[in-house]
Specification:
The chain is of the alpha+beta class and 377 residues long. Helix content is 32%, strand content 17%. It contains 11 helices and 15 strands.
């Protein structure tokens, strides 16, 4: 890798405060060594408390990176195949309906694991779908991951799996599959197989109302009034017992940096713990989208130049977006503007965290700029 221009990176991060972002935190690793960290800003409504190294955040869809690491472990072990039918593990998914341009009908071809991993399942992100509403009404805060995930398919799919990309609750379904295969709750599996091996001591699932949560940075939202405080809740946690594989984790920048470094180094941690084989990490980076899916992710999420592998975007055509970063950078982001980006060739990783919902510039400008500063040639 080329040497990072730390002055440029720090200057850019600090400039985000001038644009209204209350706090920023960024860590860069190269081959198991932390080569950069910078944080700035405040994490309370009064804007008096400076961001701390162990600050906690709602990670939202950055959760998906852990869910994908977990499922790829099971695939590597032969306990799951990417071509397995989802209904093998979740019987509710054996008979599915689809409602697309051809109308409402029974799905002839089964939904498969790779459809879930690549967001080509036909599911959507409707948190008020009838099944979810029913289970929450019946079970309240005691509704389990499995009960809620099974309810997703009480509504028809939006398209035949494998024919389009649509960002959805697919990775929540993956979490339920992991529970069935491992015989553990999703959090137990992550704790045993990711958190404890990597020393991620500040990572756990949010509760429905986040009561009693310490060190959580104030969450903000960008709207017509500007960037204003909002409730300290994770609206993707449907109950206290639900563990969302798509958006449920609370964590801190340093914990996520350990995972990012491990994946960037081919699945080997700084302490010599192998989470995944190098060839398994490379599988994560292989684009799984069909031609229509490539266009879908470009138009619906602004990710032109990218493909999408196992739960993470993969830079395929930097020339299409004027980027000087190399092909193969992979990772994902979160609803509050966080980002994890990794490169296995240079063994370099970047984790950036802010805590602002509905912040379009995070995805359109901040993350690409950080990518090119850190990874650019």
């Amino acid at each position: 890798m080329s040497v990072i221009d730390e002055e440029k990176l720090t200057g850019y991060l600090d400039s985000l405060l001038d644009k209204g972002i209350p706090s920023v935190d960024c860590i860069v690793y190269h081959d198991h060594k932390q080569i950069y960290r910078h944080m700035n800003g405040t994490v309370d409504i009064a804007k008096e408390k400076a961001v701390q190294p162990d600050q906690r955040y709602l990670m939202f869809s950055m959760t998906k990176v852990q869910t994908m690491t977990a499922v790829m472990q099971l695939i590597e072990q032969g306990k799951i195949s990417m071509d397995d039918e989802v209904g093998r593990f979740l019987p509710a998914y054996q008979k599915l309906m689809v409602n697309d341009e051809e109308g409402l009908r029974e799905l002839k071809e089964p939904m498969k694991i790779w459809h879930l991993l690549s967001m080509q399942s036909g599911l959507d992100y409707d948190k008020e779908r009838p099944g979810i509403v029913r289970v929450r009404k019946e079970k309240g805060k005691d509704a389990t991951t499995r009960e809620l995930v099974d309810s997703f398919v009480e509504s028809p799919l939006e398209f035949v799996p494998g024919t389009h990309f649509h960002y959805s609750l697919s990775h929540d379904v993956v979490a339920a599959v992991i529970e069935v295969v491992s015989g553990m709750s999703f959090s137990e599996y992550l704790k045993k197989n990711i958190w404890e091996p990597l020393g991620m001591t500040d990572t756990f699932f949010a509760k429905f109302d986040n009561t009693g949560l310490e060190r959580l940075a104030q969450q903000y939202i960008m709207n017509e009034e500007g960037i204003v405080p909002m409730e300290q809740t994770c609206d993707y946690q449907f109950s206290d017992k639900y563990e969302s594989g798509g958006a449920g984790l609370v964590s801190c920048t340093a914990d996520y940096a350990k995972l990012a470094d491990t994946l960037a180094c081919g699945g080997m941690s700084a302490d010599g713990i192998r989470l995944l084989k190098p060839e398994t990490v490379e599988k994560i980076k292989q684009n799984l989208l069909c031609e229509a899916g490539i266009e879908d992710i470009a138009t619906s999420m602004g990710r032109r130049g990218y493909g999408y592998g196992c739960g993470m975007q993969v830079l395929m055509h930097p020339e299409l977006i004027g980027s000087n970063s190399p092909v193969g950078i992979f990772g994902w982001d979160g609803a509050a503007g966080s980002s994890i980006q990794m490169d296995t060739v240079s063994k370099t990783s970047l984790v950036y965290v802010q805590h602002v919902r509905n912040c379009g510039m995070a995805y359109d400008t901040i993350h690409p700029t950080l990518r090119d500063i850190v990874f650019g040639k």
